[in-house]
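Notes from hallway chat w/ T.B., transcribed later so I don't forget. T.B. wanted the structure written out for a chain they're using in a teaching module, and asked if we could keep both sequence and structure tokens in one place. Agreed to drop them here.
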Amino acid sequence: MPEIQLDHFGKQYPNQENPAEFSYVLAPSSFFALSAGVFAALSSVSAKLAVDQHTESVAQALTLIFPNASTRVVGLLTRAGMLVAIGVCNFFMWLFFTKALRYGRSTARVMMLQTVANFATTAACGVYIFGDVLAVRWWMGASLIAVGLALLNSEKSVEFVCESPDTSTQDKKNL
């Protein structure tokens, strides 16, 4: 009986990084972190749609497609579908988040990428689904957050060594 391999990335990326010939491809941890952020935002959108008035407009549109169906039944099924979507999106968010943590070099990097994807997806859904208007202040704040995350996520890191006048040279090397 053939062995079932659930995780192909472990064999493809044993060092948890992209091979040199595929340096243009997104690293697995980055892909999984971005996917987790998107699914987290979609879960929130599904929750809002489950209790918002937009669900009624979706139900009315579905009633046009299925003219024999009752408007109330279609509305209830639409809300139930959104509640199921919350669970499905949360499942995939946690699946991708744990995979990103597994393959990532840094928990902070994974969380930053997830946050950026969550902000971007939430903003896009707010504008295109709910008709939100994002003010200039929001864009400035989101830009500052993105710049801050990029700075924290940069490859160059600074190491700080705490030195005390009474520590010996050997102790400084062990820090």
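Follow-up for T.B.: The helical segments are 9-12, 28-51, 54-65, 71-103, 107-128, 136-152, 169-174. Might be a good example for the class.
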